[in-house]
Design a protein that fits this description.
heterodimer; A: alpha/beta; nine-stranded mixed β-sheet; B: alpha/beta; four-stranded antiparallel β-sheet; 10 helices
Chain lengths: 351, 323
């Protein structure tokens, strides 16, 4: 085998202490239709060097969660009505707005879905990177910053970065632009990197390169990654733990293997069953979830999945389910688990 | 077997000129979008074209839809040359071959009611009365899983999945023989994708229509297609019946493409080949085998000679010097 392309080896994982601790986070949007509960009572933790996946359909609050973590939720409509975001031992919701620029980029940063719109078309890639780097290394001169930019681009796998820094975004391919965006996101050595569907716009072979790169960056720097996606394949490849979101709430969370082998919430089950498999021969009919998620400004009192759930009972319609856990960090909010031997109640529903 | 063939592409080629200068447009090169490809689509079956962006999948679909003229080669529908058609025959062709596009937000006219969008082709081409056309619309709406009462609504009143259903109903209105599906589900949500994939299968059964499926999601392709052609830089590098191809990939590019596709299984222990670099420019494609610059198994011969098409198993063709 030549050096052109090779069979890939997984880098090793070191998972450390809790870096990000989110407690009862609620972001509501005040619109003319009413209060849209985009993020409604979120609790999770992310450890150092860990990759946490957030999955769910469009409109379930995944992206609003990401924006809330950066305190970038669209104002004035969006308001963080309650909760705490403990990042590196400090609650960033208590920081004044003008200090957030020292948090964003250096403690927590983000890669967006569409690399075409996250770069400025009228500046060269190098200039855009130097602008960002100037924030983090204020004492350094232009020349030093440029060298740093080249260095980070090389780490993100950009070929001939000395020349590439003079390119404008339109001279680059989608995969290359996404690398540049990634380079800018890791430039400030953040503790947490949020990736909001970073590979959805890329081809599969380029996606594979990019995911591998993220893993390498993580192994080198120990950054924690929050990976937002609706692609179960990407989740299986990248994540250590997964949150399944539905209508603004986490309905199930757990370690990746348990969740894929033993999905316990009917929504997670349905979501997994509806993904066609590449490895299996023809099945007669794909499973599909009928109906649509409820409107977030007009939520039912009971379980939010009840109107689409196969196993719905009267209790589901009356009260939002409590959280049940199986002691191995696998939790799900579903009344079906009540009374089952391996599951016990950990929290009353707080809706 | 032979009379089952609905559409046949022979030696199909499309080069786009690359020009320089504003007034005197000098041709300085050619983009070899589709280069001498051959395939057939059988009645009521599905051929899928897979490959990375820029490999010529969509150009092939456009050639079939007569949106582009081929540079050389021909496409024939039931033994008559598509690009020689005129008059009535051409009108019939436009009824027989339909398209459904990726983005259901931009493919439906926002100013027309659903029933007018769906029946437009019928009224224009077949001189039926409005009442007859609307009856057909009601029938099709139920076939694609919508309610007949929804026929007077406008497209903006529907969700993405429902709009893709409308696009399918509009494609089916004239009882077509072939529908070109260009990434029909990739713009939709996961749970909705499964619904549309099921619907596509059901409709194929009840209407007996053939599909040309352009897609990059290999799981969707496995589910829908009878035969798959893998394209790379304008050429078909491997072609086989679906299960044969998925169980026994031969061409290194197909192997890399399949290994890059992710499965929803965290314990999946598949060998992973990650390709270096990106697809080269189709303006000056590499000599010999076009894949040799990225191929992990490249040999000397690969950069010199163009590999010929070989049949490795019945119906399984591959263009590669390894075999």
């Amino acid at each position: 085998m030549t050096t052109q392309s090779e069979v890939y080896q997984e880098p090793e994982k070191n998972i450390g202490d809790v870096v990000l601790d989110v407690k009862d986070l609620r972001t509501y949007l005040y619109t003319r239709w009413g209060i849209t509960k985009a993020v409604d009572g979120l609790n999770f933790q992310v450890r150092e060097g860990e990759t946490l996946g957030i999955v769910g359909e469009s409109g379930c609050g995944k992206s609003m969660t990401a924006l809330t973590l950066l305190r970038l939720a669209p104002k004035p409509a969006a308001r963080i009505v309650s909760g705490e975001i403990w990042l590196d031992g400090e609650n960033i919701l208590e920081r004044p707005e003008n200090e957030m620029r020292f948090v964003r980029g250096q403690k927590i940063s983000m890669i967006l879905q569409d690399p075409m719109t996250s770069l400025n078309p009228v500046f060269t890639v190098g200039n855009q990177m130097v602008e960002a780097l100037g924030m983090y290394y204020q004492e350094e001169q232009q020349r030093g910053l440029r060298e740093r930019a080249v260095d980070i681009l090389r780490r993100m796998g950009v070929a001939a970065p000395e020349r590439r820094v003079h390119d404008f975004p339109h001279q680059m391919s989608g995969g290359m632009k996404q690398r540049v965006v990634g380079a800018m996101a890791i430039a400030g050595t953040p503790r947490v990197l949020i990736c909001d569907e970073p590979t959805t716009a890329l081809d599969v072979t380029i996606q594979a390169q990019y995911l591998r790169l993220l893993k390498q960056v993580q192994a080198e720097s120990g950054v924690s990654i929050i990976f937002i996606t609706h692609d179960m394949g990407v989740v299986a490849k990248m994540c250590d733990r997964v949150l399944v979101m539905y209508a603004g709430r986490v309905v199930e969370q757990g370690e990746i293997r348990t969740l894929f082998k033993n999905p316990s919430h009917p929504y997670t089950k349905a979501l997994m069953a509806s993904v066609p498999s590449m490895e299996e021969k023809h099945v007669d009919k794909l499973y599909s979830i009928e109906g649509q998620p409820p409107a977030l400004f007009d939520l039912p009192v009971g379980c939010r999945f009840a109107n689409r759930c196969e196993f719905v009972t009267d209790k589901c319609l009356e009260a939002y389910p409590s959280s049940f856990s199986d002691d191995q960090g696998h939790t799900a909010d579903c009344w079906l688990l009540e009374g089952q031997s391996e599951w016990h109640k950990v929290a009353e529903a707080a809706v | 077997m032979e009379q089952d063939v609905l559409l046949r592409a022979t030696d199909l080629t499309k080069y786009f000129p690359v020009t320089k200068g504003l007034v005197l447009q000098k041709i300085i090169g050619w983009v070899q979008a589709v280069d001498h490809i051959n395939f057939t689509i059988r009645r009521g079956e599905t051929l899928a074209l897979v490959g990375e962006s820029g490999c010529g999948k969509t150009t092939t679909a456009k050639l079939i839809l007569r949106l582009e003229r081929p540079t050389t080669g021909q496409i024939s529908l039931e033994n008559s040359d598509v690009h020689q058609m005129e008059g009535e025959e051409l009108k019939q062709y436009h009824t027989d071959v339909q398209a459904v596009f990726q983005d259901p937000w931009s493919s439906l006219s926002p100013r027309m009611r659903v029933r007018d969008i769906i029946s437009e082709a019928l009224v224009v081409n077949q001189k039926v009365t409005k009442v007859e056309a609307y009856d057909r619309v009601d029938y099709l709406l139920t076939q694609v899983g919508l309610r007949t009462q929804q026929s007077t609504l406008y497209p903006h009143e529907f969700s993405g999945g429902q709009r893709q259903r409308l696009a399918l109903a509009a494609a089916l209105v004239g009882n077509p023989k072939l529908i070109c599906l260009d990434e029909p589900v990739s713009a939709l949500d996961v749970s909705i994708q499964a619904q549309i994939i099921n619907l596509l299968k059901d409709l194929q059964e009840s209407f007996g229509v053939g599909y040309l499926l352009v897609a990059h999601n290999l799981a969707t392709v496995r589910y829908l297609a009878n035969e798959v052609a893998v394209m790379y830089l304008g050429e078909i590098v491997e072609q086989a019946e679906t299960n044969e191809l998925y169980d026994n990939t031969l061409h290194p590019y197909t192997k890399a493409l399949f290994s890059a596709a992710l499965t929803a299984n965290p314990d999946s222990q598949r060998e992973e080949i990650i390709l270096r670099g990106e697809v080269p420019s189709p303006i000056n494609p590499p000599s010999g085998c076009r894949f040799h610059v990225r191929c992990p198994y490249a040999m000397d011969i690969c950069s010199q000679e163009i590999p010929v098409r070989k049949e490795m198993a019945p119906g399984h063709f591959v263009n590669c010097h390894l075999y």
